[in-house]
Amino acid sequence: MNFNARRVTLPAITPLCLQKRVIKVYNEDNNSKAVEVPTDVTARDICQLFVLKNHCIDDHSWTLFEHLSHLGVERIIEDHESVMEVLSGWGMDTDSRLYFRKNYAKYEFFRKPLDFFPDHMVSISTETNGVVDHSELIETFLKSSTCPEIHGYLHAREQSRKSWKKFYFVLRRSGLYYSNKGTSKEPRHLQFFADFSDNDVYTVLSAKKIHGAPTEFGFCVKSSQCSSARDLKLLCADDEQTRTCWITAMRLLKFGMQLYQNFIQPHQKQKASPMRSISENSLVAMDFSGQQSRVIENPSEALSVAVEEGLSWRRKSCHRLSGHGSPSSAQNSVPNIAIHLTQPWFHSKLSREEAQRLITKQGPIDGVFLLRDSQSNPKTFVLSLCHMQKIKHFQILPVDDEGELIYSLDDGHTRFTDLIQLVEFYQLNRGVLPCKLRHHCARITL
Hints:
Layout: E1 20-26, E2 32-38, H1 43-53, E3 62-68, E4 73-77, H2 83-88, E5 96-102, H3 108-111, H4 113-116, E6 122-124, H5 137-142, E7 148-157, E8 164-172, E9 175-179, E10 190-194, E11 199-204, H6 207-211, E12 217-223, E13 233-237, H7 240-255, H8 257-264, H9 278-281, E14 286-287, E15 294-295, H10 299-322, H11 333-338, H12 352-361, E16 368-373, E17 381-387, E18 390-401, E19 404-408, H13 419-428, E20 439-440
Parallel strand pairs: 1-5, 16-20
Antiparallel strand pairs: 1-2, 3-4, 3-5, 4-11, 6-7, 7-8, 7-13, 8-9, 9-10, 11-12, 12-13, 14-15, 16-17, 17-18, 18-19
């Protein structure tokens, strides 16, 4: 018998970790950039990649968001999560996006848990058989045998209806429940609402406009298979602090100890991320002030040199700006007007509502701020600042001091020659503000 042999070439099998895929990432201004990444890439890897590409300071607050426009919701993609698994849950005909932006509140609850969990919303479940000190609140979340009980009133949209109704909700390790009889927590009165084994918690955008919610502080529980707004389990709080408490507790319940590992990992000495380039890892601080250049090995000295370079640049900028125009009293005001325009905390023509939305997106914690032009008075500026999860606005008045234009937040008692000096002062001193300026709202160009 004769057989005709034919050689068959099998396709090479590429290890999963070496496969590549192109994804698109957006910034605050809806500009996007396509990048090729490994298929096993995590959200933290993506953030590190864009931090390096944009020469940002990696303060561990850069965050990747999943934004589902067709549902009007978004959520934090946790640092350890697989980005490809998130993308696999998107429908082909939906406008879903990845956003890269700051979120200062991402891990703030590990530093200041009492700011996130008000006393009236937290109690210890009967599983603990005791009382836990508030300083150990987060630890009880991370232990599998214990769990603080989060409780309080929330508005819920009834299934298949557009109407909203207020219920008393209870969050336990076994899931989220609501009471059908006032504030009763008896098992016969608690109705199951959702668990978090296959669900994620999302912030609802424009809750009043899109979903008819009674307030703008909406959030929802969404399963990975959910593709329609009808399938969302929509909730609504009465204020930002209440919403933040519920969302933070649900994140802790779902991811537990992994969130704490994400929090402490950047602060530990670990091997370089696969997204970091060789050239970036080899960067060193250099001193070129002498006849011969030298490497600055002392971190404190490197920091002081960097600060001095910044101050030197600022002095040169002021001198360069003041060199234009006629030698009159107006000459001194030129740098005051222009020098702040390049600062990352200045957002020019931003409305009050847009400022509040931007601060909320980047983390409603104490000290998040931005400066902007005043919409009501074009000659003045406004400092928008978050304190106690509420956003307050302070007018910065220009004052004519013997022909020199200066700026003040307190009717001229404390005076500054430019807005940079004002910001630097209130970063170190609270003054008339409810808290110091800690984190500026940043926008980047991808």
